[in-house]
Amino acid sequence: MNTIIRSPLAFAISAALATTALPASAQEDAVKIVQSKCLACHTEESHTKKNEGAPQWSRISHQRKTPEGWLMTIGRMQMMHGLQISDDERSAVVKYLADRQGLAPEETADYRYAMERRLDTMEAFDDSFFEEMCARCHSGARVGLQRRPAEEWEHLVHFHLGQWPSTEYQALARDRDWFPMAINDMVPKLAKMFPMDSDSWDHWQAAPKPEFVGQWSFAVHQPGRGDGSGLMTVTKQEGDQYSVSVDGQWADGTPLKGSGSAIVYTGFEWRAEIDLGGVITRQVLAASKDGMNLRGRVFEAAHDERGMEFTAAKATTGNSQIIAVYPQNLKAGESTEVTIVGAGLKGRVSMGNGVSIEKVLKRSYNSVTVLTKADADATTSANAVTVGGVNGGQFAVYKKVDSVKVQPAFTIARVGGNGGSTPKVQARFEAEAWGAGPDGQSGTDDDIRIGYLPANWHVEPFDEAAKADNDVHFAGRMDAASGVFTPGNAGPNPERRMSTNNAGNLKVVASVKDGDQTLQGDGQLIVTVQRWNDAPLP
Fold this sequence. Notes:
By secondary structure, this protein is of the alpha+beta class. The protein has 14 helices and 30 strands. The chain is globular, with a radius of gyration of 25 Å.
């Protein structure tokens, strides 16, 4: 795999989509920037009937990418070909190309985890040939988030061999006649899987685009922290730029407030940088086609593993929906406060069979908090939630917990710090409780998801080798209450065998107490070395 030491330029490129100081004049002059900066290597082409009136350039005009994809292309030109371009100029060109040659919502749907920095995602593709040829050095999502005609996919194969000549001698290449297979088999496959021309893109270009100005009712969930909600207010600035303020709180009452700026690419790709209580965070969200929802992930700029799920509904007249319910569950015979988040929440609240509403504690257009009680004889079930005529969300009632799953079941943490330039990358876990379904047997297809429950956490050696190497002692520490694992220091450790680093292979164990019983679930955690190649798309 290609390894690049993180230079100051790499840091600047990875942050560029969230820094939105993009003058209107720069956007208007994007074509002139391309002509003055790029045509030393690229050439102008004649207009096609489909693109009549729009400038055409060799290579550039024959690709479609996400904002992150275009950002990586320009960054590669800077690092490998000496392109001289200012931050404002680069931002203007990325904006222009992402709007003109981007991807439609349907085309990004299966691969958004890469843009949202869900770096513990375990990719799986039906096509093993694609996995072996393309997804062995970088994510398959990086390929899936671009579109090219066959000729351009062929150029990409040549680029790989020209830039990384050892490609043919690496694993899953030296065992086969790699280059002919890449040209004759992989190129036509990619041109069919990810074609330059598509009905989805044509329709999206012609479709009305979402309106972002106004208030958004939002809900968040962060492993190790819990649930929260509030209002996000969006104000129009120049072009597709916006100012943003966030006013909410976590379930425990801690404020969740901040402000920042945002920019929209391709009509639906929302990118923002928000200061939340002194912590700089980035929002990578997608708007629904009707403009009534925003969904995605918010994460710390310096620690993308510290992120939260983000769902928002436009708090406007005529938009009635439920986007979140927390907490997610209640045991038979017990009471708890439940908050329902959404928009247009008017009318009677129902949490489903076996649950009564004791009192409405707080109510607004965007949320309702109620005191609920589960019947003592309630059976385990996953109930639909309603507020007036609005349905959405799910609330589980359970008699007892029958099994516990650790989520994620497999992930990684990375050593860091210790005087080095790369910080530690934590791992975060949650205990997901399940109840037996109607057949009364746990572990079958009809099991009922109860949701996340508090747990006590610890780690054990995953196997005999990890036990022999004392990985539990060296690899890091698990917080017993939160499920947050912090890895050890980077660099050689003279206390370890052969002075190796603090890598390790650990079993993560969650213990959930339910009445007189304690149930356990487990997952796997690999503690590994730093990530030096930190591209916007992994």
